[in-house]
What does this fold into?
Amino acid sequence: MTHASARETRSAERRSASSTPGTERTPRVAAARKLLRRAGRDRAGRFLVEGAQAVREALDAGPVHELFVTDVAADRNPELLAVARDHGVPVVPVTGKAAAALSETVTPQGLVAVCDLLDVPVTTALAGTPTFVTVCAGIADPGNVGTVVRVADAAGCDAVLLAGDTVDPHNGKAVRASTGSVFHLPLARDRDAAGVLAACRDAGLVTLVADGGGERDLHDPDTAALLAGPVTWVLGSEAHGPGPEVLAAADHRVRVPIHGRAESLNLATAAAVCLYATVAARA
Amino acid sequence: MTHASARETRSAERRSASSTPGTERTPRVAAARKLLRRAGRDRAGRFLVEGAQAVREALDAGPVHELFVTDVAADRNPELLAVARDHGVPVVPVTGKAAAALSETVTPQGLVAVCDLLDVPVTTALAGTPTFVTVCAGIADPGNVGTVVRVADAAGCDAVLLAGDTVDPHNGKAVRASTGSVFHLPLARDRDAAGVLAACRDAGLVTLVADGGGERDLHDPDTAALLAGPVTWVLGSEAHGPGPEVLAAADHRVRVPIHGRAESLNLATAAAVCLYATVAARA
It folds into this structure.
């Protein structure tokens, strides 16, 4: 069978398997659109995952309730649709306009999955014997949260806990910035930042908060010795740094040394430096 | 004198010092608008600096040719305008609309300075005995370039060299992401990436390129020993990694170890990890 005729056969299968593509007004598309907002996600317990790479991760990771797909995207990703069907995921053809309405990107890929929220209770995230955990305590920018989850994944963290006013990691921008890492390690959400730090301590972890005014230098030998043991890194707000509650609750406040004339690092790069100093201390 | 009457006096001074505020069509505003584009900047040898903090850095760093300011911004930043006048910088009142036309931000601050381009020849940037240099080789995103300059500043680099197809560090987004660091250390631009690496080697620096497939692990003791000596870190394109020319020209290819299921780090966090591993090796 030629490539062209295989595509025709798939298109024919799609046409026979479903009626006309769903539009923005189709009830299941309209319902899914509510998941673009945090309140809608929390109410439904579900979120949207967009694009071929992220949808593939979602299919690997757990239950996908439905997969919205445009004709163009279906032709581009036949193997992905086959995996979805193998998992028993309903594949819902939609118009390009409907796919765009479910998308937060400038150039929608025409592939959007509806998935269960990923977060688990803090105690579940800290089950077993964690030795390396990251806590986001008041991170407001979804791109930053996604990037921190990605760095935590790369550094080998056991879990990421999202405390205080931290933005929802199921936000589309956060999911995209994580490049799949939201599916790779346990995530937990809890507004009570001090309670989250106490849970970390109960799990045997020393709590370190990254703070420009911290009493410990990241590169002191004493700090390296700490980092070789079980630790939680706590990262505060990008605008205001860690709050007084978090600074008081942590075991140590650690500063990234600044050698030039910069005032500070931005949140994502500071997180990367702290988490990888921990990796280095264990190498 | 009360605060209110001091403000009235200043406003009166401004009115007497100049006629009506410049608009988008005023020739010097129209000329400055051309600096929003790279071709305009390269032709004029000048760039725009926006916002109180960045303008302050620009006034500290070198010649500022003119400072466009709205009434509101003038009232908010009297000390900054005093510094500008002390430096003999012409202060040009403009309308809010003119300031917005000179701005690339969503909420313009009403303060835009015209400054000389910052870059110097590569040989000038490498003068003296540099021990720690960063080379951007093909970084396309201005936010990434600005963030790398900020991290290089914080890590104590002697210079940042912008090679290959790297975006202009005088781009507004790059300047903003650097939070002033473009003014703190020598910057040089040269399209010939292999030539830039050769110049680094001539300056006594070992050249290391950050590469996911690199033969050396960042955390190997051998690598730490290298990092304690004079080195140049080379950072490639965020989309494609370092090009073959750069990989071949560098003395070593170094990978950041990935311990979880993430495929990689993003460019800015990888840069932060590499540059701060160097700081740690010298602590």
About this structure: Chain B has two domains: 3-116, 122-281. Chain B touches chain A at residues 147, 150-157, 177, 179-181, 184-185, 217-220, 256-266, 268-273, 276-277, 279-280, 283 (CB under 8 Å). DSSP finds 14 helices and eleven strands in chain B.
